[in-house]
Fold:
Amino acid sequence: MLRRRRNLPWIQRNSRFIIGAIAIVGLILTIYLTILKLSGGEVACTANGSGGCNSVLDSAYAYPLDPQGKTGIPLTVFGSLAYFTMAILALAPLFINPEKNKELRQKLEKSSWWLMLLVTFAMAAFSSYLMYVLAFKLQAVCPYCISSALFSFTLLTLTIIGHDWKDMGQIFFTGITVALITLVSAVGVYANVNTTAVDPNMELAAGGKTPITQAQTAPKPPLGWEITTTSGESEIALAKHLASKGAIMYSAYWCPHCYEQKQLFGKEAFKEVGKVECDPKGVSPAPQKCVDAKIRAFPTWIIDGKIYEGVQDLEKLAKLTGYKGSTNFKYTMR
Structure:
């Protein structure tokens, strides 16, 4: 007697293809962001003209293994690994011939569904935490970040409805457990993120310099962030020397690294620095000068016709311009 093969709903017949496709799109997105961050480039994204994506992806929250120094692996690398894992789990069983290797195909399908469930619950939970950070800590809009979160929730939804689970109670119990572990881990990882302003009276035990902190809120035109450090005589003298040598700093008001450069000088000294604002919404903007100078990243210094990209230590700026005055600078990056 022949048994009629049970007809599966459309979503269950095609769920692996859909999950795999979304995971691949997420993988491409996170690889793109990873390449830009590792190469020092700027993300092609603005939010209401505020450079929201860059301020978020350059924040301490974007470096989970080193939220203080921001020298660790970017969060986008971990996102890439998560999407890559989902793509493999969803699509790998489909490459097994069910006629020649029926038992292997069934084992892979069964185990991969459970693994996908664990991964997607973890991704959704972590994305929820990041959305909280985005809304209440950074107070910024990052379309890439929001898209990735939507991908995570979509993958979770498809994993739940795309398979014929026998015990939904166990599914949700497992999900809640994974989500709680993920959230507790996330809170623990970011517990040391410093979101307070610099205390000018606090000095490091070694070197006698105060470490500056990074911007942790969304930039507001035209200033971006207010400089909170105060300049010493050395910073002011160096700034005047740089101006006399024609050294120019090209920046954008929303650029967090530009803010770090400003913090190294301090409020009084930075007024003396030669600078060009590249964003039309910044203070005294001159975007055409930035185009003419072929500025690719912020901040960029042009000294004696040579280009120096990224935040520069004041000691390096002094050396590059032949500064002979006092180098008793007050601040350091970390």
